[in-house]
Design brief:
Layout: H1 3-13, H2 20-34, E1 39-44, E2 65-71, E3 74-79, E4 83-88, E5 94-98, E6 108-114, E7 118-123, E8 130-135, H3 159-166, H4 173-177, H5 188-198, H6 211-231, E9 270-275, E10 278-283
Antiparallel strand pairs: 1-6, 2-3, 3-4, 4-8, 5-7, 6-7, 9-10
Helix pairs in contact: 1-2, 2-6, 3-6, 5-6
The structure holds a DNA duplex.
Length: 289
DNA sequence: CAAGATTCCTGGTGGC
DNA sequence: TGCCACCAGGAATCTT
C-alpha cells in the first residue's frame, strides 16, 4: 500500500463531527477515494435518519462520483447520472473509508461500495444526519440550500455583510452568528470561541455590534475555523477518535465547556449561561459589550 | 418578520 | 454495581 493511501485512510477513518471544520476534514479525507470511482453497491441497513434516506439511493449503483464539494455543513457528491448525493452528518455522523469486508459496527447505517476495493461507510449513533439524492438541476433552488448565508471562509463574508445582516436583530449576538441565514458553519463551539477571541460579550444585542467590532468578529471567525480545519477538526465526547484519544483541538478551546475554570488569558472564572437554548461560555474579564 | 420553543436520537453522566 | 432521569446538540419547523 502506498504511503499516500495510508495517509488518506487515516484521515478518512476517524472522523468526528458536527462543526464545519469536521465536515471539511471529512471532505478532504474521502475525496481521493471517491472521486472518479464507480459505485458497485449501495447497502442501506437503516433508512430512518433525521429524514428518511432517499429511496433513490440504490439507483446510484453503476454511476461514478465526479466531485465532492461542501456547502455549509452539507457534503455534495455529484454522481454521473445527473444527481447529487447530499450528506449531512448531523451531530454524531461520520463517513469513513473502509474495506468492504470490515465488520459492521453498531450504528453503521449505510455502505457505498466503490470499484477498486473500498467502501464509504456512514455511521451515526444519534441519527440526526441525512442522506438525500437530489437532481443536480434542483440543487441551486433546493430548500435546504437556497436560504443559506455566505461561507465564513470566503471573501463575501465581510464585516459589512455581518453588520447589515444583524441590523434588525435584537437577539444575543452569539445566537445571531449561529443563524445560517447570517453566515453558515458557525456552530455552538465556534460561536463562543470566536466571540472570546474577538473580545466581545456573547449577550450583546446583535444590532448593537459596531462596525469595528464586526471587523474583529469576522476576523476571529475566519481564524478559528481555519485553525481548526488545519488541526483536522475538533473532537469532543462521542467524537473521540477511534483509538479513544480525545481530539487535539480541545486543548485549544478558551471558553467552550470550561465553566468555572480559569480563563487562559486573564485568570477570571469562565461564565456560562443558556442563550437560544444552547450552552454559552465567555470570560467576563476579556469580553465586553 | 423576528424570536422563542419544540422536535428528532442515543450515549455519557451524576445521583442514589 | 445497577438503575434511571437528565442533558447535549444541528437545524428544520412550529408557535407566539
Amino acid at each position: 500500500m502506498q504511503p499516500l493511501l495510508v495517509l488518506g485512510l487515516l484521515l478518512a477513518s476517524f472522523l468526528p463531527m458536527p462543526e464545519l471544520p469536521e465536515v471539511e476534514t471529512t471532505r478532504l479525507g474521502i475525496s481521493p477515494h471517491v472521486i472518479g470511482r464507480k459505485i458497485s453497491e449501495v447497502i442501506v441497513r437503516r433508512w430512518d435518519l433525521r429524514w428518511p434516506v432517499s429511496p433513490e439511493l440504490p439507483e446510484l449503483e453503476g454511476q461514478t462520483f465526479l466531485s465532492v464539494e461542501r456547502r455549509s455543513k452539507y457534503l455534495l457528491m455529484e454522481a454521473s447520472g445527473g444527481r447529487m448525493l447530499m450528506v449531512h452528518l448531523g451531530m454524531s455522523g461520520s463517513l469513513r473509508v473502509v474495506s468492504p469486508g470490515e465488520e459492521w459496527r453498531k450504528h453503521d447505517h449505510i455502505g457505498i461500495t466503490l470499484k477498486g476495493g473500498m467502501q464509504l461507510r456512514y455511521h451515526d449513533p444519534r441519527r440526526f444526519g441525512m442522506m438525500l439524492v437530489v437532481p443536480i438541476s434542483e440543487i441551486p433552488k433546493h430548500k435546504l440550500l437556497v436560504n443559506l448565508g455566505p461561507e465564513p471562509l470566503e471573501e463575501n463574508f465581510t464585516a459589512q455583510h455581518l453588520h447589515m445582516a444583524l441590523r434588525n436583530k435584537t437577539i444575543a449576538l452569539k445566537v445571531a452568528v449561529m443563524d445560517a441565514k447570517v453566515v453558515v458553519g458557525v456552530g455552538n463551539i465556534y460561536a463562543s470561541e470566536s466571540l472570546f477571541r474577538a473580545g466581545i460579550h456573547p449577550a450583546l444585542p446583535a444590532n448593537k455590534l459596531t462596525k469595528p467590532k464586526a471587523e474583529k468578529l469576522v476576523a476571529a471567525i475566519k481564524e478559528v475555523l481555519a485553525e481548526s480545519i488545519a488541526q483536522g477538526g475538533t473532537t469532543l465526547r462521542d467524537f473521540l477518535n477511534s483509538d479513544g484519544q480525545p481530539g487535539y483541538f480541545k486543548q485549544r478551546l478558551f471558553v467552550y465547556g470550561r465553566k468555572g475554570e480559569a480563563c487562559r488569558v486573564c485568570g477570571a472564572e469562565i461564565s456560562h449561561s443558556v442563550m437560544g437554548q444552547r450552552a454559552t461560555f465567555w470570560c467576563a474579564g476579556c469580553q465586553r459589550r
